[in-house]
Design a protein that fits this description.
Blueprint lengths: L4 E6 L4 H12 L4 E8 L3 H11 L3 E4 L5 H7 L5 E4 L1 H7 L7 E4 L7 H9 L3 E4 L2 H17 L4 E3 L2 H9 L10 E6 L9 H5 L3 H4 L9 H9 L1 H14 L6 E5 L5 E6 L5 E5 L5 H9 L30 H12 L3 H17 L7 H12 L8 H18 L4
Parallel strand pairs: 1-2, 1-5, 2-3, 3-4, 5-6, 6-7, 8-9
Antiparallel strand pairs: 8-10, 10-11
Helix pairs in contact: 2-3, 4-5, 5-6, 6-11, 6-14, 10-14, 11-13, 13-15, 14-15, 14-16, 15-16
The protein binds magnesium ion.
Length: about 375
Amino acid sequence: MTKRKNIAVLGSTGSIGTQTLDVVRQHPDRFRIQMISANNSAELLVQQALAFQVPHVVICNPDKYREVRDALPASIQVHAGIDEACALVQAPETDVVVAAMVGFSGLKPTLSAISAGKTIALANKETLVAAGALVMEQARVCRAPILPVDSEHSAIFQCLQGAQGNAIRLIHLTASGGPFRTWTHAQIAHARKEQALKHPNWDMGAKITIDSATMMNKGFEMIEAKWLFDVDPSRIHVVVHPESVIHSMVEFADGAVIAQLGSPDMRLPIQLAMAFPERLPLEGKRLNFSELQGLSFYEPDREKFPCLQLASVAMERGGNIPCAMNAANEAAVAAFLQDRIGIYDIPETISRVMDGVNFVSNPSLEDIFACHEEAFRMAETFLRPL
Ligand code: MG
């Protein structure tokens, strides 16, 4: 019998976190939840702790500690603060850490898990955007396997399983194009939050859904692919594929293109990352090829979606620039969600911040944290107050 894997979930109440627990619910003989953490969603965290009888529960916002502690029996240990989450992911009994926190805040606990040599199921792409060189080096030194949960990167990872060490000629990174794919520049300029939050194919959290609407998400994913698969930026090609049937492709020297297809369901990459190399059964919608109306592909429009271009520039410049870009984006997306700015103010802010920060070519972890703070504050000065 295969050993049950102990899973720690950073960000268990978000979109990836709840779907991770769905996977565990379907395979109780294979996975056991060892630890869950959330920033603020105390109520859902408590429900999850009870449903899965999770031994360790972390609420990162210490103001919510009482609420969580009082709602749970003494058999469940409740901890407060991000530092507790960083310590708990290193527990010897933990096998896989699902890094599903949103944004830059995921960097510290993910690095902590890597340092302990844990297998990382990585959903938090901002970790690699902000500190890809450091994260990959740490993973190499500590022999921590990083398995991608992002659907495109999981697809690339799957396409590479038969590569036998042959080099990648091109990665074709597919993009749905988001809710504004067919809109004009002028229409996008007046897009409201509610419209940006309606993704055509994927059901995700608010931050990543806005990132998809601006295509910054695809920009992040280019950088994520560069680090995960150790490829030169020139070998990453973004292609818009509105049906989201092909989740990405790898092209080799002989022109062969290997693709991974499936219904858009994040539980597949989550489950594969946790169970790898095994493929476990997964209930859900299957692709029906006779019902497919055809697959289409376009080049992305970088004028309508300047975030994609900014990400290319950041990836080329390297150093701390992707970190600054990510921080500016976090500040700007938060402002957009508060109705403080229009959608094109997001790339405008990012561009000004990328030009404004001091360039550091080989940033240390301290440099990265300092750059994030500086860039976030700089972005705030460009954004209108409430
Ligand atoms: Mg993705």
